[in-house]
Design goal:
2 domains; single chain; mainly alpha; Helix Hairpins
Length: 146
Amino acid sequence: MLWFLLGALVLFLLLGGARAFERASVPSIKALFAWIAALGGLSLALLLILTGKGGIALGALTLFGPLLYQKWQAARGRRVGGGKTKRTSGNMTRQEAFEVLGLPPTASEIDIREAYHRLMRGAHPDAGGSDWLASRINQARDVLLG
């Protein structure tokens, strides 16, 4: 009976973890894997030191140390404010809307609708496109036809 309860508990935890993984955002999943890798590496190094194989841990540190330091600096630089910031919201001008749809400013309503449908076929999230691009195309259509 105890094995059955332990098995049910493990199954419950696995299904709960899978559900949480499904709902999590990509950055949080990346952070989780980074923490798992870091804790696994530290655990392995501690195990090697405690079993008298500290030389192997030191060799691994000299091999992977520069790579880990470079990754750490890159992640730290991104959080501090390094990198290019993109404009995510705000009012779109008519000129920007025409540029998003790839149309000249003299385009008719029919041209705007055709360009919108053509672009959304590939940019829609259900078709493998990005949410950001689809929202920009929708915003451009709303500005021009709204």
